[in-house]
Structures are given as C-alpha cells and as structure tokens.
C-alpha cells in the first residue's frame, strides 16, 4: 500500500537507490524504525500504512549484519567449507526469494550440505523454493527431506541436457537487490557450446525494476532544469548499472564481467556476463569471436558481437575449401544501386540433406531455406541443385572477420497454412490461374457459411 503526496510544481522527483549505510533495503525483508528521543511517535505511526493493525510495539536491539557487495544481498561459503558452485548459487536464490534467512546460512548449514550429493540438494532446494513462507529451520528441513529420500530409495535422476539445450544461470538485478535464478534450461548458442567446459561460468543478467518489470527511461535520467541547453541528470540507478557493467560483481568465488549482448537482449535490458578464470577470460572470448576493431560504430559493433549469441543449432564444421564467395545481384537505376540478393546465399542439395538429418528433419525432403550464422556471415541460404560447393555466400552476408567455421542454424523454412487473400489472388492470376477458379472457391465458402445458419451439424 502506498500513500500519495501532492507534488510541488517546482520540484522534480528523482529515482534514488538504497541510502542506508549497510544497504538495509536490499539486504532485509523486514525494516526496523529507529526514532530519536523526543520524536512524536504517535504521529509517525499514524502516518504508516496499516497503522491500525500494528498493535503493541516492543523495542529490541539486534546485531547489524550486511554485505559489502554492491548488488546485495549475497551469501558466501564460510572458511573451511567447500560446496559446488551451483549449491552456493541456489542458496543465494533462496535468500533472495525470502525462503531462507541470510543469518541461517552459516557453518552448521554448510556442514550438512557437504555430506549430501548435488542431486539430493537439487531436489531439496526445489521443494524449499515452493514453500509458501520462509523456512526458519533450514537444518531440520534439509535433514528431514534427505532422510525421506533415502527411505523411499528413489533414484535421483541426473538428467543431462540434449545437444540443443544448455543449463544457464540467470540473474535479475533491481535498484536495491539481486535475484539468482536457475540454472535453467534454454536453447544453446555457439559461444557457450564451444566453451562448454566453462558453461557454468556464463550468466544472463537482466536489469529490472523492483517488481521485475522493465525499467523506465525516467529511472535512469531525469530533467531537473528547464531550458534548451539543460542536460538531464544521471540518476543513481544509471551509475549502479554502469558500475556493474564496467566493474562486474561477485557471487561467491566467481566475479562476473561483461561479455556481450544480442539484439533481443538489448531490447530486454539483458547482457551476457562471464566469470573469468586463469584459463579463459571475457576478453579472450571476444577475440575468439572475431575481429571487431574495424567497426567504428558502437551500436553496430555490439550487434555484430551479439550475432554469435543467437539461439542456434550447431551442425558441421565447413572448411573454406567447401565455401565459395559469389557476387551479389546488383542493378543500378537512375543512379540508385539496388541489391536483390542482400543476405541471400546458396547451399547444395547434398549438404542440405546432411544438415536436415542432423537437426532432426527428414533428409529426403529438406527445408528449402535455412537461416544461418557462419563465422562473420549472417543471412539465409536456399537450396541450389546445381551447386557443387557446400555453401555459396555473398559479400552482403559478411558482417565481420572471423576464423570460426561452424555452421549454426537459427531457423529454417516450414510449411504454414495459406489463406487466399487479395495479394495471393493477384500473384496466382499473373501466373495464369483463371478467375473462374477463385469464383468457384468463393461460392463454395458462401454455401458453407449459409449452411451454418440452418444446419446445426454444419455449424
């Protein structure tokens, strides 16, 4: 419940962040109101929502506990204990969702967690996440669930994801909190698939409002001055997001750093982040993806980097000897150049059948077109029965230089219902279809519609 106040016409409201010293708003689900001596307590309490339902109040003192992280709240593994990173991530998720109290994630809890398998803990955490209220006795809950599983002797399934799926950590960052989600299964992309050894180091990070809705542009900048030359004020939320993208953030032993984002992620305020290690860093991945130094436009460079993060199916490595570069079909009219083959290449029938079989389609009837990502190339390839090369690509399909030779399929042509409309009729008429054929179809539909008014079975 919120109380509305009358806004002063000369005063501009600016979105602020957690202003408490220990990030109390982001750290806690319950807030303590501390009043100075001589304050009008009754007036303050009467101004609070649900003031009539508060009842008697008691003064109590507590030890202050907080997090030094800039995205709070976060819990870490105590010294002397070691658990899989997924366990630590899920513990953070339960704390963020209010299913666990941060103070209860202590050494006693980790001592119990170390003795259980990861599959058992997955089931226990999944059941805990479905609780309708906070679990104030996590030790008792975990021991009881583990004992029940042993008594039932259920085989704990370790279901492996198929080649087209991957397990991905998802993180939602709000103006005052962080929510850890997953790991969840989603369609893989070539970057994560290629670095599958470090798949658990990738994370999808989304910046959302406190209710998980999309952030408003006014939350990032506000105009506090009038005038043509006045500049908008960058809010604390803007600097919070910028700081996370520049400096990253830590969850347990891993520090996530900005990697890249796709076009669809940009619309949803999401990015890919990677926890760099001694063997692989985010910068190493960007260099492996391709050469982007020659792209001077920031937006275009970001879009090209996100090209490899599109959800796709990996098929075959296609060497440069099996790829030919063919010219675009260009026509110049009245000084204007038109490219009629923009983004359209070709694939041989033999290779199209191999690709169709690999992605689970009928090789005898392969799709007529595939949407692809191949190195720095992007576009659509159609079947050419006369082609002797596996792939025939055009200059208009090349977006950047890359040494990658994996053919990634993002989509393919499918059969869809077709409805006869004005455009289809005009097209078929120019191909020689007589008007009587369309008139006959129209009469049949009209008779069927009339029959629905008198015949219940037809209706």
Automatic annotation (TrEMBL):
It is an enzyme of class 2 (transferase). Keywords: Nucleotidyltransferase, RNA-binding, RNA-directed RNA polymerase, RNA-mediated gene silencing, Transferase. It comes from the Eukaryota. Residues 1-55 form the RDR1/2-like PH-like domain. Residues 173-458 form the RDRP core domain. Its EC number is 2.7.7.48. GO terms for molecular function: RNA binding; RNA-directed RNA polymerase activity. Pfam families: PH_RDR2 (PF24823), RdRP (PF05183), RdRP_helical (PF26252). Residues 73-157 form the RDRP helical domain. GO terms for biological process: regulatory ncRNA-mediated gene silencing. It catalyses: RNA(n) + a ribonucleoside 5'-triphosphate = RNA(n+1) + diphosphate. Belongs to the RdRP family. Probably involved in the RNA silencing pathway and required for the generation of small interfering RNAs (siRNAs). PANTHER family: RNA-DEPENDENT RNA POLYMERASE, RNA-DEPENDENT RNA POLYMERASE 2. This is RNA-dependent RNA polymerase. It comes from Zea mays (Maize).
């Amino acid at each position: 419940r919120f109380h509305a106040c009358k806004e002063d016409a000369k005063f501009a409201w600016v979105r602020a962040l957690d202003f408490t010293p220990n990030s109390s708003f982001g750290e806690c689900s319950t807030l303590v109101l501390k009043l100075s001596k001589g304050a009008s307590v009754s007036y303050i309490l009467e101004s609070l929502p649900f003031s009539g339902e508060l009842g008697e109040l008691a003064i109590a003192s507590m030890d202050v506990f907080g997090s030094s992280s800039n995205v709070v709240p976060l819990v870490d593994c105590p010294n002397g204990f070691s658990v899989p990173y997924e366990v630590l991530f899920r513990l953070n998720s339960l704390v963020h969702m209010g299913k666990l109290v941060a103070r209860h994630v202590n050494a006693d809890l980790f001592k119990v967690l170390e003795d259980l398998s990861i599959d058992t803990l997955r089931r226990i955490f999944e059941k805990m996440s479905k609780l309708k209220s906070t679990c104030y006795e996590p030790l008792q809950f975990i021991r009881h669930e583990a004992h029940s599983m042993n008594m039932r002797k259920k085989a704990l399934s370790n279901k492996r994801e198929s080649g087209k799926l991957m397990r991905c950590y998802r993180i939602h960052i709000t103006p005052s909190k962080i929510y850890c989600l997953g790991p969840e299964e989603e369609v893989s992309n070539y970057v994560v698939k290629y670095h599958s050894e470090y798949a658990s180091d990738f994370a999808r990070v989304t910046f959302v409002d406190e209710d998980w809705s999309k952030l408003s542009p006014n939350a990032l900048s506000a105009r506090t001055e009038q005038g043509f030359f006045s500049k908008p004020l960058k809010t604390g939320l803007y600097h919070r997001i910028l700081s996370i993208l520049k400096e990253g953030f830590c969850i347990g032993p891993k520090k996530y750093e900005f990697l890249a984002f796709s076009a669809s992620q940009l619309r949803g305020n999401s990015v890919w982040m990677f926890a760099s290690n001694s063997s692989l860093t985010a910068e190493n991945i960007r260099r492996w993806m391709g050469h982007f130094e020659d792209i001077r436009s920031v937006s275009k460079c970001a879009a090209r980097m996100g090209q490899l993060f599109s959800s796709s199916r990996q098929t075959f490595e296609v060497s440069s000897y099996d790829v030919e570069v063919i010219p675009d079909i260009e026509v110049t009219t009245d000084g204007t150049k038109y490219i009629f083959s923009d983004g359209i290449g070709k694939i041989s029938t033999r290779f199209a059948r191999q690709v169709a079989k690999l992605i689970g389609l009928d090789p005898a009837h392969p799709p007529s077109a595939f949407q692809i990502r191949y190195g720095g190339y992007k576009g659509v390839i159609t079947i050419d029965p006369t082609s002797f090369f596996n792939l025939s690509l055009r200059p208009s399909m090349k977006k950047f230089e890359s040494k990658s030779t994996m053919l990634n399929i993002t989509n393919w042509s499918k059969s869809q219902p077709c409805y006869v409309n004005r455009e289809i009729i005009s097209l078929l008429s120019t191909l020689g279809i007589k008007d009587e054929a369309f008139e006959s179809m129209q009469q049949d539909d009209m008779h069927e519609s009339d029959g629905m008014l008198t015949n219940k079975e037809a209706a």
